[in-house]
Amino acid sequence: xxxxxxxxxxxxxxxxxxxxxxxxxxxxxxxxxxxxxxxxxxxxxxxxxxxxxxxxxxxxxxxxxxxxxxxxxxxxxxxxxxxxxxxxxxxxxxxxxxxxxxxxxxxxxxxxxxxxxxxxxxxxxxxxxxxxxxxxxxxxxxxxxxxxxxxxxxxxxxxxxxxxxxxxxxxxxxxxxxxxxxxxxxxxxxxxxxxxxxxxxxxxxxxxxxxxxxxxxxxxxxxxxxxxxxxxxxxxxxxxxxxxxxxxxxxxxxxxxxxxxxxxxxxxxxxxxxxxxxxxxxxxxxxxxxxxxxxxxxxxxxxxxxxxxxxxxxxxxxxxxxxxxxxxxxxxxxxxxxxxxxxxxxxxxxxxxxxxxxxxxxxxxxxxxxxxxxxxxxxxxxxxxxxxxxxxxxxxxxxxxxxxxxxxxxxxxxxxxxxxxxxxxxxxxxxxxxxxxxxxxxxxxxxxxxxxxxxxxxxxxxxxxxxxxxxxxxxxxxxxxxxxxxxxxxxxxxxxxxxxxxxxxxx
Length: 507
Known about the structure:
The structure is a single chain. The chain is of the alpha+beta class. Helix content is 24%, strand content 12%. The protein is built from 15 helices and 13 strands. It has helices spanning 9-16, 34-43, 85-99, 124-127, 164-167, 248-252, 256-260, 300-312, 331-334, 351-362, 375-386, 453-456, 471-476, 483-491, 494-506; strands spanning 118-119, 150-155, 182-183, 186-187, 196-208, 212-224, 236-241, 277-279, 286-288, 397-398, 412-413, 421-423, 441-443. A hairpin with a 6-residue loop joins strand 8 and strand 9. Helix 3 packs across helix 10, helix 8 packs across helix 10 and helix 11 (375-386) crosses helix 15.
């Protein structure tokens, strides 16, 4: 059987046959024929032989994987290899918009104004450094740099019977009545910023088998220089670091039934993922969340539009307010000029520009994996499986045959995620509910590309708030449903832990 790894989609469809025979098994994947369903089930079965790499394992992004690029800080910024000429042109326009610095209104550059009035960053690239992870303020206690890529989500508890909008899925959480859903540390001239994030770290030593010790950094968050009076006395903070942008279109093309098949199962290992069900504001329909740290967005279009609104205060067709996260209590913010121009459209980022940004965000390519046949990498892969890390970090999928874009159709991909919510224990808890996601729950982040994190951004760190300085620290923070897997890593020999990290670094 051939999957779309190096062949055009049309040729692949011809080779496998376009007929879709009806069968009871198609309820699992109605986009597949009964024959294809059986073949897909076999190819996505977890590995059992760790003496050699699996077929196509190096091509982790399917046919879109870039296999001929030099590994350098730009390795996350290439278009998918299987993009058409027309789509590649749209990708390049989207790249320019992703990097563009927006300015406050009014401005002579009318197609670039509308920033804020309150904001976290002037561009998408400012948070997603070279399309990879963002950077948090340093671990040096004397450093007091402002956070750009680290957002601080705000919420207040919903009282019994007082929050029908949350109960009905109209909003994911209740905002701070003055500061809204998100703290913005920057403002346009003439307006005070909301405040500054400060982080205090405490060292937490962890004894490892073999005489080694790891030191974790436990953060405590506070806000200084409040510009609009006190925060709500019961406000909850949820720090969120900008994640990498890789393979988002392929994640969107994973069939819902493949995600649901992993939800709720607990084969005696204590792992039971949950879906964050959302309400699509365009249709009102109940949809599956799969993007951001708590699976709070259903697709790339919503994720991008939410970032334009919350992070930069720019209006889009999905989030039409010109004032972003400004609240009624911030009257001066709502009186500032906005950047919508009648001759350009009714939104500061009109539909056409959003299309380019979406094409870009959907098609940032996965780099080819390195050293997949290396003995130490294979040993680490075996340990990854034996420790049941794949209970959440599901290795591979075959995407939908009927995906919205041709480059994403019927691709064998290796993202290492189930896109579900899991209880990660008290150590990582933020105490903030978001839709169906509880205060101890996080979506399983994809691992593809994780080994090149510091190649792209030498200052990058891991986990939802960037507290983990190394991959080992990230593993050691796992608790809750992942506690047993974490404890297996603690009990490994130093060589085994090194092999496990070597495997992760190959992704």
